[in-house]
Amino acid sequence: MKKVLKFILPIALLVLALAFVTACRNDEDETPANIYDDVTTDPVDEVEDVVEDDDEVEDYVDDEVEEDVEEPADVVNADWVRVALVAHSPDSILDDFSFNAGAWVGIQAFLATHGLPAANADFFQPHEGSDVARIDLINSVIESGFNILILPGFHFETSLYEAQDLFPDVKFVLLDASPTRIEEVDGERIFHVRIEDNVAAIHYAEHESGFLAGYAAVMDGHRSLGFMGGIAVPAVVRFGHGFLQGAEHAANSLGLEAGEVTVNYMYLGGFAPDPAHTTTAAAWFAGGTEVIFAAAGGAGGSVKAGAEGADALVIGVDVDQSTLSDTVITSAMKALDVSVYDMLTEFLNGQFRGGNALMFNAAVNGIGLPMGNSRFVQFTQAQYDAIFSQLASGAVTVSNSLDMGDILPTLDLVVVNEM
């Protein structure tokens, strides 16, 4: 096991984090919806089937989730809460400007709210990126006295499927995934999802966040767009498909002609930085692409490098990436800090919603664009507020289908060039 030194955030950042967490809790009744119950099927299909019916989601929250909530403790004393943020591999660093960094802000905000010392939270990395190494690390962390573990990303799907049974007295918060066992049957992969009572599986409406990014880009005056995803995993695919739908919605709102907005679209095949990605991005920019939405983890840095060399623009992903490069005009964000802060608060209050997969979407301020740090020229805060409100209320809906064949027929104005 390799353990890194604690990452201490500046006081100013903690204040901002607390302010953001507070601002995102506009309505105490707004609760992330449970997207599927304990199932043994493909989690992607289950998410799509349930989330597309907004009434069903609301009914489930009202009738089911509240019944499963444990009674709060009589006295809330936070000293006993010890939080571990566990990385999926030795290459997954804390300051990654993505999942780890976002989750850590939420952890630090929780510590600050309750006056807890830095020692009540720590960050850990496995010695290698395998299920065995991850489970070994989880065991070591628990033996060290940590009682709630934050696990960021889909790499933990199979690890936690086993670990949730090995450590029933420890709580786990799995970000962007659900515990899954993968079975090979006649050459096909079958996904079995099982969420035990000690696990809260957090999902985010990437299709809505991507929609906002595409909408904003076109409303800001851009007509030649690009999308570069890392690997075609469900979260990345939903970002891309939402981006296309947002561009279409904006083109329709502006009364643009068919073909006036174009989108180059590809998956890079990995999330690691690579000079080849910089070359590809530079070629796109040289060919007229104005802005690329890079939903590609560390590979997004390579796209940004291509933009810097071409005086072009990039849209970041997951967290506010405006400080990484002046080329970043906005970021399609997931409220990683808010979701982690909320789950820790529920754990503290004896209200941990284990056994549930919870969706953080626009309705609960679970996604969005960082308008305060965005570099738009024409797109305004008022325009953003209006479209976000429509998403949150359901007046505007975005398909979360993973099949491009479902998306392309809905695009009457936007031309997509798949590469």
Large-scale geometry = globular
CATH architecture of the largest domain: 3-Layer(aba) Sandwich
CATH class of the largest domain: Alpha Beta
Determine the oligomeric state from the structure. single chain
Number of helical segments?
Answer: 13
Share in β-strands: 15-25%
Are there runs of 5+ residues with pLDDT below 50, and where? 1-29, 35-75
Q: Please, what is the CATH homologous superfamily of the largest domain?
A: Response regulator
Return the structural class: alpha/beta
The rounded distance between the terminal residues' Cα atoms is 40 Å
Look at the structure and give the mean pLDDT.
86
| Strand order in the largest sheet | 1-4-3-5-6-9-15-2
CATH topology of the largest domain: Rossmann fold
Largest sheet: 8 strands, mixed
Q: What's the layout of helices and strands?
A:
Blueprint: E1 2-3, H1 11-23, E2 33-36, H2 43-51, H3 54-68, E3 83-86, H4 99-113, E4 121-125, H5 131-143, E5 148-152, H6 157-166, E6 171-175, E7 180-185, E8 188-193, E9 199-204, H7 206-219, E10 224-229, H8 234-254, E11 261-267, H9 275-286, E12 291-295, H10 299-310, E13 313-318, E14 328-334, H11 336-348, E15 356-360, E16 367-368, H12 381-393, H13 404-407, E17 414-418
Parallel strand pairs: 3-4, 3-5, 5-6, 6-9, 9-15, 10-11, 10-12, 11-17, 12-13, 13-14
Antiparallel strand pairs: 1-4, 2-15, 7-8, 14-16
Helix pairs in contact: 1-4, 4-11, 5-6, 7-8, 9-10
